[in-house]
Amino acid sequence: MNPRTEKIQLRGAAGVIEALRDAPTAGTIPQGVVVIAHPHPLFGGTMDNKVVQTLARAFIGAGWTAVRFNFRGVGVTEGVHDEGRGEAEDMLAVVQQVAPDGPLAIAGFSFGAFVAINALQSLWDARDVQRIALVGPSVERVPPPPLPAASHDRVLVVHGEQDDTVSLAAVMDWSRPQALPVTVVPGGGHFFHGQLPLLKNLVARHLRAG
């Protein structure tokens, strides 16, 4: 991502977890650590996905240390795909190792947002989770649980109007009972082709708020 990107190896229940860590932009006030989860590994998702990198850049620019990690079976991360269960466990393990205390943010794209939502169920009451960014959350085939009601002021959900991987209607069906706002990008697809600068700005704006 940049010359200062640090390759690290962490431990999860299935073995080694491959991760990358980026320090916040020089001159910014340190805010804490964000852990970012990538899209579905069985469809080519990795921590180098462009949306994941866009999320990392937005957080880095706002003073956060960004940690991306590969799910089970991706890169040198050990284990096999576990349909979100083991992945959520691994996300919690990453948090414990890279941010054992202090301010925390959670982010994810697509399947990674699904995993982040599930991990948040354990994290919310135990940690100071300052910001949550969910992009194109995978809520259609297996809807995740609702977010903790008290977290809503710290949550950004962004979805593309023309997403043909996870329908906007499914995201609205998940968010409606929670009265959870969704930011819709007009004409946006699942991977936000041509709209990554806009996505970065939306996340950056969310991080500046409050």
From TrEMBL:
Pfam families: Hydrolase_4. The keyword Ribonucleoprotein does not apply. Keywords: Hydrolase. InterPro entries: AB_hydrolase_fold, Hydrolase_4. Residues 30-144 form the Serine aminopeptidase S33 domain. One of its GO terms (molecular function) is hydrolase activity. This is Alpha/beta hydrolase.
